[in-house]
Structures are given as structure tokens and as C-alpha cells.
Specification:
Elements lengths: L1 H7 L18 H19 L6 E3 L2 H5 L6 H13 L3 E3 H11 L4 E6 L3 H13 L3 E7 L10 H11 L6 E4 L10 H8 L3 E3 H13 L9 H5 L4
Parallel strand pairs: 1-2, 3-4, 3-5, 5-6
Helix pairs in contact: 2-4, 5-9
Length: about 220
């Protein structure tokens, strides 16, 4: 996630990061990350940041209902006094901002985790027109070229946007290309997280090179 966000933040904005131990994409490990979140958030709060993001997409969408990630963000905000968003929340808000309701989805995930993602999106009011993953837990090993090929395969005429899920996954190099190829906006986990973070921090600068979402000035 740092690889992309540090390349995108506008002048005058600093990015502060702490990590939560994560060694496997299992339900147990993904849910355990949520238990470790308060301590991680407290560390970042010491830097007096303007906004916080819990940057694991799956730990948000794997929860028991579509509103659980929003409640998680609200709890962290109450704890730290800092506006907070989860990456899964940011994806939903970005798609709504772009006016997309029918979404084609690509990810590095194994099928069971894509099933969770599909249910989360449907509970959030979206129709998933197609979804595919690499079926791996080695997300960072998936190259941008492999990812753009996967995303192109899931786009159908019904899709109004392309969603690429996972923050441990390089997508920055392909967002603009994929938008040109498909004629549709592309929303990725890291891009959407940064978009929402900047909005919470009151930073409205348009950012080129990362799709329509960030190219637009924010109020």
C-alpha cells in the first residue's frame, strides 16, 4: 500500500504508516487483525494525523454484515478522536461517488474470499457483473500486466465500473490504461483509500495518473 500512496500524495501531505502482523489469508487471521487495530491506531494518533485508514480490504468485507466496517471505523474514530475509514468502506463510497451500481471485480484472492467480497458488495447495493481472482495468497507477486489481463476478462457490457480489490497488490501502473481500454472508471483498494483519506483531511487537490476518481478535485 505504501508503494502507491507515497507516489500519489500531493505536496504538503505526509503519509504515516504502521503495520499489523498478518501471515495468511484465513478467516481467523483476517478477523484477528481487527483485534489488533486499536493499538495500531493509537500509535498513529501520536503523530497527530488528520485522518486514519485501516488498509486491509478483506478484514472489512469479511465481517458479519455490510455495516460492520463502518462501525469499526467509528469505534477507532471515537477512540482516537481522528476521522477514520476502512478500505472496504472507501471502495463502496468511491463507487457511489462515481455513480456506478454494476461492477466488474478482479482480485488476487482465492475463491472463498471472492465469495465474501461479492456478498459484501451486493449487501451494499451493487450488482456484481463478473468476478475473478488469481487464487493466491501471494498477492504482491501478481504483476501489473497479469492484473490488467485479469481485469479485462471480467469486464462485460453491463459493467459500469471496474473494481480491483486488495491493498497488497500493485495497480497504480494500470489504472489509467484500464480506464482507456474499457471506457469505464477503475476503482482500486489503495486508490480509493487515499481518495477517502484526503477527503477526510480536507485535501482537495486533483491527482493525475491514478484514474478518474483522483483526477477530480475534491470539495
Amino acid at each position: 500500500m505504501e508503494y502507491e500512496t507515497l507516489r500519489l500524495v500531493p505536496p504538503g501531505v505526509s503519509m504515516h504508516v504502521t503495520r499489523i502482523p498478518h501471515t495468511a489469508d484465513t478467516e481467523e487471521r483476517l478477523r484477528h487483525m481487527v483485534e489488533l487495530l486499536p493499538a495500531a491506531a493509537e500509535l498513529l494518533a501520536h503523530a497527530r494525523v488528520s485522518a486514519l485508514c485501516f488498509g486491509c480490504t478483506a478484514s472489512g468485507f469479511i465481517q458479519e454484515d455490510a455495516g460492520a466496517d463502518a462501525r469499526l471505523a467509528a469505534a477507532v474514530a471515537a477512540q482516537t478522536g481522528i476521522p477514520t475509514v476502512t478500505t472496504s468502506q472507501a471502495l463502496v463510497e468511491a463507487l457511489r461517488h462515481l455513480g456506478a451500481r454494476r461492477v466488474a471485480v478482479a482480485s488476487p484472492y482465492e475463491p472463498w474470499l471472492n465469495d465474501y467480497l461479492k456478498r459484501y458488495l451486493e449487501r451494499s447495493g451493487f450488482a456484481v457483473t463478473g468476478i475473478a481472482g488469481f487464487g493466491t495468497q501471494e498477492h504482491a507477486r501478481c504483476s501489473p500486466e497479469e492484473t490488467i489481463a485479469l481485469a479485462r476478462r471480467v469486464v462485460t457490457p453491463e459493467a459500469e465500473a471496474v473494481l480491483i480489490s486488495c491493498t497488497n497488490f500493485r495497480t497504480l501502473e494500470i489504472i489509467d490504461r484500464l480506464e482507456r481500454d474499457t471506457g469505464r472508471p477503475v476503482v482500486t483498494s489503495t486508490q480509493a483509500s487515499l481518495w477517502r483519506l484526503l477527503g477526510l483531511a480536507g485535501v482537495g487537490d486533483p491527482i493525475p495518473g491514478a484514474g478518474r476518481l483522483l483526477a477530480q478535485a475534491r470539495a
